[in-house]
Amino acid sequence: TQLLEQSPQFLSIQEGENLTVYCNSSSVFSSLQWYRQEPGEGPVLLVTVVTGGEVKKLKRLTFQFGDARKDSSLHITAAQPGDTGLYLCAGDGGSQGNLIFGKGTKLSVKP
Amino acid sequence: EAGVTQSPTHLIKTRGQQATLRCSPISGHTSVYWYQQALGLGLQFLLWYDEGEERNRGNFPPRFSGRQFPNYSSELNVNALELEDSALYLCASSSRRGPFGYTFGSGTRLTVV
Question: pLDDT for B75-91, tens place per residue?
Answer without folding.
Answer: 999 999 999 999 999 99
